[in-house]
Amino acid sequence: MIDRQLPGSLAIASKMRFRWVSLAFLSGVHAPMSVSVLRWVILGAPGVGKGTYASRLARKFGLKHINFGEYLRESQLNGRGATAAAEAMRVLQQQGDLLPDSFVEPLVKDLLSDLERRPSAQQGWILDGFPRTAAQARWLDGVFPVQGALLLTLPREVLIAKLAGRRVCVTCGKTYNFMYINEAGMRMPPLLPPGCRWAPCVSPDTTVCTCPRDDTENGVPLLCEALPKGCERGTACSGRLHCRDDDRLAVVRHRLEVYESQGASVEHYYDTTGRLHRFALTGGVDAIIPHLEAFYGERAIASVRGSRHQHAAHTSMGQAPSAAATSDER
Asked: Are 104 and 85 in contact (CB under 8 A)?
C-alpha cells in the first residue's frame, strides 16, 4: 500500500506503520550517478500533454523535467541557432517533420551531461520530446540508460482538438489551452490563465470577457486580459497569445502522421525491453494527476531498484551493465 503526500517522497506501509521515504533514498543518491539517477522518458502523440504531466510529476517527486522541444525553440529565439543549418532545422520543425539524428543527438548529450553535473538533478529527470525514433532510443540507452518510458494515450480526435486550442504567452512562453472537451465520456476542462473569463468555461453568473478572438470556428482568444496575472513578467506582459507554427491544423495532422509512423517503433523498443508503461488519459489534469502520480511512483521506485540490482550483478561478474538492461519490476 502506497500513499503519496510530500513532494519527492512516498509513505510506505511497513508492518502496519507508515514511514516517509524519499525517492532520493530509494534511488541511493550516494551511489555512482549512472546507477542512482532516475532516468525516464515520457512518450505520447503531439498534444497528449507530455509537458504538462511531466512537469507535474517532476515537481511531485523532486525530479527535473527536460522539455527538449522547448529547449530547441528557446535556442532559436535566443540566437543560438543562427546558422544556415539551424535555419533548415527550424523549417523542418515548423513543418512537423523530425530533425535528423546528427543534429539532435549531440544537443541531447550536452544537455543531459550538463544537467547531471548539477546537485539539483541528483534525484533524476524526466525527458520530454526525445527520443522520437527507435534508433534514437537505442542511442540514448548507450549514453544515458533509461529505466522506464511512460506512454500517455488519447483518442486521435481529442488530440487534434487539444492542439487546435493550444496557445502560448508571447511574453514568457507559458502554454495554455482554450479547448473544452466534453464528449464520448471524456471531460477535459481547458488550461486557462488565472482569472480568465473565456466562454464556455466560466460559471453562469460570471460575465465573459470581450477579448478579441481569431477567425477560426472555435474563436480562440488572440489577447487575454487575465494573462499578466499568471505571466512570469507580471505587468510587463503584453497579454498576447501565439499559436505555434507546428500547432496549425495542417501541420497538426502531419505531426500525428509522423508520430504514428515513427512512434510505434519507439514504443515497441521500450516494450520489448520491459520498460514501457501505458497510461490512458480519461479526463482533465486535476482529475487525472493523482492517479498518474500513483501509477508513476510505484513504477519509478521499482525501476530504480531493478537498475541497482543489475548493476550489482554485473559488477560482481566484472562486467559493465548492458545499456538496454530491463528493470526487475515485473
From this structure: no
Q: Which residues contact 267 (CB under 8 A, 6 or more apart)?
A: 43, 149, 151, 276
**Distance (Å, rounded) from C-alpha 119 to C-alpha 296?**
23
77 pLDDT more than 50: no
Among 209, 196, 73, 190, smallest CA distance to 128 is for 73
Residue 20: band (very low, low, confident or very high) from pLDDT cuts 50, 70, 90 = very low
Quickly list H helices, 78-155.
84-95, 101-116, 134-143
pLDDT tens, 138-159? 999 999 999 999 999 999 888 8
Rounded alpha-carbon distances, angstroms, from residue 187 to 179, 180, 286, 298? 11, 8, 11, 26
Any idea what DSSP says for residue 225?
T
Closest-CA residue to 171 (of 74, 236, 223): 236
Q: Which CATH class is domain 2-158+248-316?
A: alpha beta
Report the alpha-carbon distance of residue 85 to residue 135 in Å, rounded.
22
Instruction: Tell me the pairing of strands 276-280 and 148-153.
Output: parallel
pLDDT of residue 94: 60
Q: Residue ranges of the domains in the chain?
A: 2-158+248-316
pLDDT digits (tens, 9 = 90+) for 268-278: 999 999 999 99
Residue the block writes with cell 533514498: 25
How far is the C-alpha of 177 from the C-alpha of 220, rounded, in Å?
9
- Residue-wise pLDDT for 226-244, tens only, equals 788 777 777 778 888 888 7
Phi, psi of 124 (to 5 degrees): 130, -170
